[in-house]
Design a protein that fits this description.
Number of helices: 2
Strand order of the largest sheet: 1-2-5
CATH class: Alpha Beta
Helix content: 25-40%
Radius of gyration: 13 Å
Number of domains: 1
CATH architecture: 2-Layer Sandwich
Number of strands: 5
Distance between the termini: 11 Å
Order of helices and strands: EEHEEEH
Length: 84
């Protein structure tokens, strides 16, 4: 992971977590071979999101949706704090 930022567009709020190319490739390989299974995203050791894998996650990042801008900002701050 290289960092996280909160993003907002209208009423939609999310956190974009950016990965190194190597980490993105590992995530894509893992999710591609586990379609239909559940995956948890842990922040500071606690599940932040639990979802069913519907297809390989690729690219350089992962977008995690949130209900409120403050939640998205707090989640991005927590992700960045884990990097230190």
């Amino acid at each position: 992971m290289t960092g996280a930022t909160s993003v907002s567009e209208g009423q939609d709020n999310a956190v974009l977590v950016q990965f190194t190319p190597e980490a993105a490739a590992r995530l894509q390989a893992y999710t591609g071979s586990h379609i239909g299974q559940r995956m948890a995203v842990l922040i500071d050791g606690y599940p932040s999101v639990v979802t069913e894998i519907s297809g390989p996650l690729g690219g350089r990042g992962l977008q995690i949706s949130g209900d409120y801008r403050a939640q998205a900002t707090s989640l991005a701050d927590s992700v960045n704090a884990c990097r230190k």
